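Sequence, please.
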């Protein structure tokens, strides 16, 4: 055999990179359903914060002064949300979250995951 260990390692690495590029591999991230209950005075701030966290607003329902926002948010974007919501609403809003599904990570965000 006229090849060294290094030659095989390099060839294996190159083959793996080629196969991954051809296989159209993509990354999935967990997505959560979130329901935020907030006074109407803070609705804009809460929706803005959810948008910055890549949340997709599903619906907004209101009864009197209370607004309920239904959305889906990537789990990775939800870290620190309790503190953010408390700050935005002076502690007057609350939220609940549960697992929804997995979705493909958008292009440009893959390196962050």
């Amino acid at each position: 055999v006229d090849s060294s260990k290094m030659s095989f390692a390099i060839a294996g690495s190159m083959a793996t990179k080629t196969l991954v590029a051809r296989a159209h591999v993509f990354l999935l991230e967990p997505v959560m359903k979130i329901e935020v209950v907030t006074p109407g005075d803070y609705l804009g701030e809460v929706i803005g914060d959810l948008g910055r966290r890549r949340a997709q607003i599903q619906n907004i329902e209101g009864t009197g002064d209370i607004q309920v926002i239904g959305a889906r948010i990537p789990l990775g974007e939800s870290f620190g949300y309790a503190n953010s919501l408390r700050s935005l609403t002076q502690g007057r809003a609350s939220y609940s979250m549960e697992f929804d599904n997995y979705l493909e990570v958008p292009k440009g965000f893959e390196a962050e995951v």
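The chain has three helices and four strands.
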